[in-house]
């Protein structure tokens, strides 16, 4: 007869599949409502805004820049790589979608998807740039964007890319459907960042950004993780370019390979706060709103206003608005009688 046990009964291990599932549910439940709101609220606001505000083009541009800022958020906020040539993926997406409509006669929605694929393919070709870092990477990406522009706008390739003569998609023009596609793309980008922030992949990216050597020693495949983030970011820009091309229908290479697009997307992301879900969206809405009010009518005053905003951001709020909200949240949580 076996001796009676006098100690406490062993606790069943939670390392099995059931335990892992329980932990995942707890993790999702902890931020589930805010995560759902991060996707649903912007989509609902922009769907309603088009019925309340007459300037649909401004709203569309705001949506496109919000998606581009989220793309910058993915590659810079989670890996630390800042691509000044990010516009290359946007232009590739615009031309990928447009040429698929012109030559393959695909539906516009499918063409937008192909535009995202074109952005990702260009990202795959430029993956060796990730061997560089800091200013070297930023400058190399800028040079790559210029090279792509020169290829697309080359008159010798006019029979393929239409060269400097531009694209005309009037036959595929659909104002309401293209706007809805832009709203859906914003929701997709927000969802992607939500998943990234709460996934093991996102944690691995943050680890590589903090210390790539330590992350690799801990078992993180640094090259693979960075490359995947790079491709996701490129695909988002390609999708944004495809939606933009469909929405405006007539454009030239200078419109979709303008380096100002990269600058705006980076500034919007930095202003709102990279590594956050809402930051790039808030930055795009606030700063593009200022641009639409001041920059178009009085560009000289806009440059002054923009310059002062960027200087103030760098000097007093380097983490963007996201760091300000985190600081206020921490202050109230730590205050006597505050939320804990």
* Poorly predicted sequence stretches spanning 5 or more consecutive residues: 1-22, 335-340
Gyration radius from CA atoms, angstroms: 23 Å
Largest sheet: 2 strands, antiparallel
Strand content: under 5%
Distance between the termini: 53 Å
What topology, given as strand order, has the largest sheet?
1-2
**What is the helical fraction, as a range of percent?**
over 70%
How many helix segments?
15
Overall pLDDT metric: 84
**Which structural category do the helix and sheet elements fall into?**
mainly alpha
**CA-based shape:** globular
Helices and strands, in N-to-C order? HHHHHHEHHHHEHHHHH
Q: Quick one: how many beta strands?
A: 2
Main attributes of the structure:
340 residues; two-stranded antiparallel sheet; 15 helices; 74% helix
